[in-house]
Amino acid sequence: MTERALRPLTEEEYLALEGESPLRHELVGGIPYAMAGASLDHNLLVTNLVALLRPLARAKGCRVYSETVKLRLAEDTFYYPDVMVVCGPKAHPLYETAPCLVVEVLSPSTEAQDRREKLARYLRLPSLEGYLLLESEGRGGTLYRKTAEGFVEEPLEESFALPCLGGRLSLADLYEGVA
User: Fold this and answer.
1) Does this entry carry the keyword Nuclease (predicted)?
2) What's the predicted TM-score (pTM) here?
């Protein structure tokens, strides 16, 4: 096995790696991290959410992306959000940069990263109006909604107003078919 020095990748090196790799990697501080697979309930929750968001996004001229689209936060930081909504022009053929809504489905292996690292980074995005965290083991979650004073943390109620797209979502619809 050939040794390779560990060093931060440039944006170009990372995009080339992702174009050739059968695995997806998030890039944090220039270091690529392979992503784990998701459970069936995780995938179903993402699918339900995309189906519910699509008509609202379409009505506003926005796009809904799920799981395989990169979000560039900085030259050395890219994530693959579970779901994101973008209402402006496409930033690049391989990634987006200005979502108005980002959603992560929590799992035991990603919850700490989603609640700390990603929360801190996502809330710095000027375009972001909401960051939604959904429980995969249980039913519920947290919405960080942008206000004039900054982001406020709201536990999800049975029905909740959606930032960015308007409208309301219900937990019953989100969790339909999820164990």
Assistant:
1) yes
2) 0.92
